[in-house]
Amino acid sequence: MIDWSIIEHWLTYQENSPLLFTQRYFWVFFALVMGGYSLVYKHTARRNVFLFAVSLFFYYKTSGFYFIILLFSTVVDFVIGWAIYTNKVKWQRQALVALSILVNLMVLGYFKYAYFVVDFLHDLTGIELTVINSFALWTNQAVGTNFVFEKILLPVGISFFTFQTISYSVDIYRGHVKPVKNILDFGFYVSFFPQLVAGPIVRASEFIPQLHQPYQLSKQRAGLAVFWILNGLLKKLFLADYLAVQFIDRVFDNPQLYSGFETMSALFGYSLQVYADFSGYTDVAIGIAMLLGFTLPKNFNSPYKASSVADFWRRWHLSLSTWLRDYLYIPLGGNRKGSIASYLIVFIFFVMIALVVGNPLLTLILSGVFALGSFAMRYSPVVAKWVNTNINLMLTMILGGLWHGASWNFVTWGTLNGIGLVVYKNWKKVSPWADKKKWYNRAIGLLLTLSFITFTRAWFRAPTWDGAIELLTKITNDFGMDTVAGVISGNWKFFTVMLLGYLIHWIPSRYKTQMQDKVADAPVWILYVLVIVSTLVIYQILSAEVQPFIYFAF
Question: CB-side exposure of 427: number of CA atoms within 13 Å?
Fold first, then answer.
């Protein structure tokens, strides 16, 4: 007898079991995909339609009927893209680009920032507003689903695919890419399942040229793909999940029970966890894409080797950092000048802070800062130049923080990183330790940068703004020096794995490249051995409950 309940479970959306790279179900799914792919890969049109279909199924299994939002964005930007390309009137082309950006940001804003706006309005006016998920309510009525409509649930990956569709319209306007002729090909670009839900963000100019290239998979490229997949899984399961379960989550769940040293250790562990978790996902995504014949952009470049905050952001989440640079920072004026949009955003930001806090003194201070700054810029070319070369950098980091989450925690995190960039940008001009050719200057810079990035992540990890302050206060006021030895001996496995993780991360890149090349060039039987051994190691250290990927929440 066929157990139809199992088949139904595998083919329908299950809220508590989404398709994850860390589940056996995903690898069964991927094996079936490769089996079907072997029948169509020689014909690019059929290949793209096939991958579009399985990508939609993947997203359905991950987010349920939210895949309709993905289809909506696909149709809207496909139509707008062609309208931009065929229109020769400049202002109309600009209006179409603005329409694409507006529609995508409205979709993103509705699902991601509705509660943030409602809370802001409540703090401002005292009015209680009820948020209802109209999409879930409509879906329940239309197809009989049982989605919760009393609250808005964030569709997985919405921040990633909306940025991709925005870049498509902008790149067509700028002449960097021609529109895709077939909407199914465009849908495949938007929904390509390896990177759909947690990046990297793939620009149209990078991916669309690959749509009609013939499938190629050399033995070396296959070996490299295996390396990236195993590397990503080991990062996720051996480092990220192990560190979280063994120590980090316990400390952050009940920070009042732990000393300042334990809190600081958890923060440094979290820095390694979030890197291993996120880069592990993108490593697997890059490897899977390689096996399917596609190339995804590199998303990390050993960020904890950075010797400055600026160097860190040239290494961390590259697809987002460069996206913000090209589609936000430069359009605002870059490092040359501020724009009307720049100053308007600053003004709105100041007003929002003053209204939320509701402190008359703070309102007076912010008003004074804005007025004094405007006056100084008007009569001092030096001040005007300094503000104009730094304002857009700050705004980009603040908005980048808000991209990560709809809370003042992420705004604070982005603001602190923006301040760090501005301070470094000006400090390096006079710093006696600016010469990074000297190893001890690099070491000092690495230590300071890692510490700064780690402590700002208190706002990234803590559930509330006050919770982040509590974590940092615990470190400064209750360090518990007398308990350090006992904490380390009692949690020696955590500290050993964390130290090992950082040491591996700091291995010079040339040695890592050599190791990648050796794996890529290894005989097939060695690749099989690596897969088997890695699988055994993963399941030996696998926690009872696999942790969700952190960036699924963004």
Answer: 13
Phi-psi region of 351 (alpha: psi -120 to 50; beta: other; left: phi over 0): alpha
Q: Is 384 exposed, middle or buried (0-12, 13-18, 19+ CB in 10 A)?
A: middle
Q: What is the pLDDT of residues 456-478, one digit of tens each?
A: 999 988 888 888 888 888 888 88
**Which tokens is 480 given?**
């518990």
Of 105-109, 327-331, 524-528, the poorest mean pLDDT is in: 524-528
What whole-number distance in Å separates Cα of residue 25 and Cα of residue 10? 8
Alpha helix (H) residue ranges in 176-259: 183-191, 204-207, 219-234, 242-243, 249-253
The conformation of residue 303, written as its DSSP 8-state character, comes to G
Contact by Cβ (8 Å): 32, 170? no
Rounded distance, CA 268 to CA 266, Å? 6
Query: Can you give the pLDDT at residue 392?
Result: 81
- Among 194, 174, 204, 227, smallest CA distance to 78 is for 204
Contact 201, 64 (CB under 8 A): no
3-state secondary structure 336-402: CCCCHHHHHHHHHHHHHHHHHHCCHHHHHHHHHHHHHHHHHHHHCHHHHHHHHHHHHHHHHHHHHHH
Q: Which residues are catalytic?
A: 404
pTM attached to this predicted model: 0.86
Reading the block at residue 22, the tokens are 């860390």
d(CA 457, CA 268): 9
